[in-house]
Amino acid sequence: MTWIDYWDGAPTIYVNARHKRVHYDAIADGLVARLDGAKNVLDYGCGEALVSERVAAACERLYLYDAAASVQAGLQQRFAGNAAITVLSDVDLAQLESGSIDLVIANSVIQYLDRAVLLSAIETWKRIVRPDGRILIADVIPPSVGPLVDAMALLRLAGRNGFFLAAMAGLVRTYFSDYKKIREQLGLTRFEEPEFVAFMRENGLEARRVRPNVGHNQARMAFIVRR
After folding, report:
1. SS3 sequence of the chain
2. What is the pTM of this model?
3. Whole domain around residue 217: which residue ranges?
């Protein structure tokens, strides 16, 4: 079992439909705010991409890529008639023209990549991003941020948006869920801020932390990374 296998199995990580909608609306707000005029954008590890129409409306071309085969298939079907959104297969990603992307987005992605896969992803991002382009790496988890901190962030979000009781029940379900077991088994890739900056520098990139983080959990970090 890998994290890709887990996400390929269509797991349920939201306490209810309200949670899912609020979560993705917050992501859309964060991503659109970070476009800064980018025309060609790649959302790497996009998942269900429920806010992609909003992101696509704020740029010229949005590319979506996810490594889970079932997610790719669902995206292909869902966006087949959308001229502003292109869903990439693994082959398409490998063949994407070098220097063709203004902004690569990797939101809530790198925690699920082991170091070898992360290094491979970084090489892909470096190849496809324009010399003056940017990589937004968001939702980076510091080692000090554990499940309790995440739970408190969820409860604050739920309290503001009317699903507090559902969130409480969802946290109980999560404690006994496959996600908890997989997280304990596979772990998450974590970085402190200085460690992340140094790691990027070792791989030919300059990273600068930016605030706020994309999404609701401000205990996690976002970085703008450049070649």
Report:
1. CCHHHHHHCCCCCCCCHHHHHHHHHHHHHHHHHCCCCCCEEEEECCCCCCCHHHHHHCCCEEEEECCCHHHHHHHHHHCCCCCCEEEECHHHHHHCCCCCEEEEEEECCHHHCCHHHHHHHHHHHHHHEEEEEEEEEEEECCCCCCHHHHHHHHHHHHHHHCCHHHHHHHHHHHHCCHHHHHHHHHCCCCCCHHHHHHHHHHCCCEEEEECCCCCCCCCCEEEEEEC
2. 0.92
3. 3-226
Looking at the 3D structure of the chain, how many domains does it have?
Answer: 1
220: CATH: 3.40.50.150
Q: How confident is the model over 19-68, as pLDDT tens digits?
A: 989 999 999 999 999 999 999 999 999 998 988 999 999 999 999 999 99
